Amino acid sequence: MDNSAIMSWSGGKDSCLALFRAVKSGIKVKYLLNFMSREYQRCCFHGIESKLIREQAQCLGITLIQKGVTADMKKYEEEFKEAVTELKKEGISKMVFGDIYLLDHYSWVERVCKELSIISIEPLWNNSAAEVVREFINSGFKSVIVSAKDDLGGKDFIGRVIDEELVREFERRKICPCGENGEFHSFVVDGPIFRNKIEILEGEPILKEGFWRHWFLDVKKYQVKPKLS
Q: Which domains does the chain have, with CATH numbers?
């Protein structure tokens, strides 16, 4: 059976660790599938510009497919199915996701993948969020918080590297250390599967009003640097 797969890609730590585990298990991830807000040309929820996601994919050495989507969930599902169906034509039979414990999204993935006749793979599912984030850190990945809910002190977290000190702070404040409920989102800049690393040189926290009040990191300047051997 063909062992190639599509990776549902946000650019954040959970999808990155799921990718890492999938690759270690022998799955060949052929494409990273990333959905962008059609209106803002930024990654949904994370707020990262499309060009920075493209830089990240180049650092990983995996082909990135970016698709613009709307905020309407019904239309999003249609656009998701269209994108996956197109990639399936290459004989791909699997798709990898980074869900941990959010049952609503897991159930949506299972239903939609069944309707698309594609096998869903969830390397992180039902793992402890604390164990997931610590495995991410201890494996040598580096991730920066790029969005966070205002009512959880979001501005204080923007731009911070996810490390053991920050994980303990989340735990003290009763915040999921993986942000599984949307408390925060991250952007991975380095790790063991990165060929090059991204260094954020300048960024500005910006507050956006919507269904929730969210702080976002508007990355103004960055550079891609070769990794030392």
A: 4-121 (3.40.50.620), 129-226 (3.90.1490.10)
